[in-house]
Amino acid sequence: MLNIIIFGAPGSGKGTQGEKLSQKYGLEHVSTGEMLRAEIDAGTEFGRLADSYISKGNLIPDEVMISKLNELMEKRNGVKGFIFDGFPRTIAQGEALDTMMDNHDEKVTIVISLEVEEEELISRILKRGEISGRSDDNRETVELRLKVYHEQTEPLKNFYIKQGKLENVQGQGGVDEVFENITTIIDKLLI
To answer: How buried is residue 64: exposed, middle or buried, by Cβ count under 10 Å (0-12/13-18/19+)?
Structure first.
């Protein structure tokens, strides 16, 4: 199986690139953000719990996310692999994901880190908020989400560098240009 983590700050293009990669390689795109928003919109108990964290710019507890992802792994009939978008977000989550994957005789193949300058990230997220109406895409929450990213998520880069799995990709530029740069890296793995 080909299992990809698409990594980057909020607004770096993880969702867009994850969808394109899913279509090209026939992988299941697992966007934890979309999964959580669907639960919130449905008003489920899990959704209300998730919203209590997300609306303040905080991360969902690790054990809750791992449990949800484990359910997906157990139902993977015929899936060629996964694209994890928005997870892991901490070293503890990275370790838990590795353990969960090991339990299913799988591993993370590669981690694509989308590199985008901070002001560009803020601009993209605020623009997305205007278009989509997402309540968490306002300036105050965006700045808090970026602070949380730098403190809690960015250290994962070294975690995956030590595993020899991290590939940095310039995330600024056109969507198709960024996608081509990513697929060039992935295609080399498939040879």
So the answer is: middle
Active site residue: 76, 128, 157, 165, which one?
A: 128
Which of 107, 80, 92 has the alpha carbon at shortest distance from 152?
92
User: Would you kindly state where each structural domain of the chain is located, as residue ranges?
Assistant: 4-186
Q: What is the pTM of this model?
A: 0.87
Residue-by-residue pLDDT tens, the chain, 191 positions: 899 999 999 999 999 999 999 999 999 999 887 888 888 999 998 889 888 887 887 778 888 788 878 888 888 777 899 999 989 988 999 999 999 999 999 999 999 999 999 999 999 989 888 887 777 778 888 888 899 899 999 999 999 999 999 999 999 989 999 999 999 999 999 98
Assess whether 134 carries a catalytic annotation: yes
The active-site residue, picked from 76, 134, 157, 165, is 134
Active-site residue, 37 included: no
CATH superfamily placement of domain 4-186: P-loop containing nucleotide triphosphate hydrolases (3.40.50.300)
Of 20, 68, 124, 145, the catalytic one is 145
- 128 counts as catalytic: yes
- 145 flagged as catalytic: yes
Please confirm, yes or no, whether 124 is among the known catalytic residues: no
Q: Which of 14, 20, 68, 124 is catalytic?
A: 14
| Span between the terminal Cα atoms of the chain, in Å | 14
